Amino acid sequence: MPELSTPYRARDHARSMHGKVIEAMPTLPITGAVGVPPDIDPGTLTWDETLAAGEYASRVLKRGSRLRLINKQGDACAQFLCYNADRPIERLNVADTVKVQWNAYLGEGKLLLSDMGRVLMSVTRDTCGRHDTFCGASSQWSNAKKYGVGDNYSPYPNARDRFLLGLLKYGLGKKDIPANVSFFKHVKVHEDGSMAFVPDASKAGDIVELRAEVNTLVIVANCPHVMDDRPTYTATPLRLLAYRGEITGPDDPIRNAGPENQRAFENVDDFYL
Amino acid sequence: MSIIYDFTIAARAPWSHVVKQGQTIRIIDLEGNQAVDCILYNAHDPAERYSSCETVVAQRNIFLNVGTTLYSNEGRAMMTITADTCGRHDTSGGACSCESNTLRYGHHTKHQHACVENFIYELGQHGLGKRDVVSNINWFMNVPVLDDGALGIVDGISAPGKYLDLKAEMDTLVVISNCPQINNPCNGFNPTPVRVVIKE
Questions:
Q1: Closest-CA residue to B153 (of B97, B64, B93)
Q2: Nearest CB to B100: which of A117, A135, A176?
């Protein structure tokens, strides 16, 4: 332990940490981002942050922004919620998302729909293809059952508490936690309704890229999936990269992929008139 | 057990009532294939409410049937299905809304009555509101999931007189929307009344 008996010594000790770099941290200033994928213009980057196991982040993305989730080592679990940032009483509705699009597993070209008939985000790229929309977030009690403890302050924080913290920072709270999506984790539903967690549904380097169709508040927690029965708390680093992009135009292929999509975008257009 | 409450919910109408711990509520599909949208709240702390995710993860199955425990967002048992003559019920498809109807069927359906209208109206009677609407249960509704993830509301498997019993594990505010949807098979394109009977 350093001897820090005066404010000056304590200050110097604190300042000696300046510039320290670890894997799981935000990059500030954003111009310092390294390892930016070649298809992203570094000049358009707005956010670069990596979440280690159990970590979370919340942020508002401007309309047109892209958010790329990168499953760096293949075992991240991106438990995800999003809200209309201008009126967060409008939020992701997983049931409408799967029902309106006639499919439960999401994938490239699918939409994340709000409870007000609008598309909040579009899945513009997806190298993984199947994600969970049924199981929601891990909780204190589900983690405690598997790892002994699951409190937010413990070594095994749970996604539900992570969501709550992210929401509280925007003046929202417990009642604002709806069912969420978990990217990079697949839960197979059989004909009899039984569910099976599919190990290794994603691989290192898989990406999901989301386009914000409205100004969007996103909350991401990288905690082990609630159906992941491995006894060790396992989630590998999740990188979040956001960059500026054009607002979706009338000829966009996702917008025109079907009548439900068209009307979800028309309802967004209507919101901004 | 004696009947302490007996009420017929009109077609398209909302309804709510507290079912006390130990009491059993029977929901009867009087005319058949009538979706009954339902959300549960802890009667003493409505921030604790039904969670579809907790419920399906606990039983590792997306369908609700006899033996299913309905869990809250706090991981506690709210109600248990103690009898069921229908076979299975949905908790994946959510509630219809004016807004989602515009996506599913067209902007012309914007002004048709919908379950979310019923839910928020009824929640408003209890000082609750839109933040309190969560992924719900759809009694008597049939929503299969196919191998490729295809999901949809299809022809029902209920029939006139089919019912289920729910035993309350805590004092539970039961909020129902007797589904008014007329654009899909969830009500056989014809919304009809349902009956609720509480026994203790």
A1: B93
A2: A117
Q: How many CB atoms lie within 10 A of CB B5?
A: 13
- Provide the shortest C-alpha distance from residue A103 to chain B (in Å): 4
Per the CB < 8 A criterion, the answer to whether B27 and B50 are in contact is: no
Tens digit of each residue's pLDDT (9 = 90 or more) over A101-136? 999 999 999 999 999 999 999 999 999 999 999 999
**B133 shares contact with chain A (CB less than 8 Å):** yes
pLDDT digits (tens, 9 = 90+) for A48-91: 999 999 999 999 999 999 999 999 999 999 999 999 999 999 99
Cβ proximity of B77 and A237 under 8 Å: no
Q: Within its chain, how far is the Cα of A142 from the centroid?
A: 20
Whether the CB-CB separation of A268 and A121 falls below 8 Å is answered with no
**Whole-structure pTM value:** 0.96
- Look at residues A220, A59, A210 and name the one whose alpha carbon lies nearest to residue A121: A210
DSSP string, A200-221: T-S-TTEEEEEEESSSEEEEEE
CB-based contact (8 Å) between B56 and chain A?
A: yes
Size of interface A-B (CB pairs under 8 A): 136
Residue B179, SS3 per DSSP: coil
Q: By the 8 A CB rule, do A235 and A57 touch? A: no
| CA pair distance B166, B22, nearest whole angstrom | 10
Q: What whole-number distance in Å separates Cα of residue A141 and Cα of residue A91?
A: 25
Question: Are A122 and A210 within 8 A, CB to CB?
Answer: yes
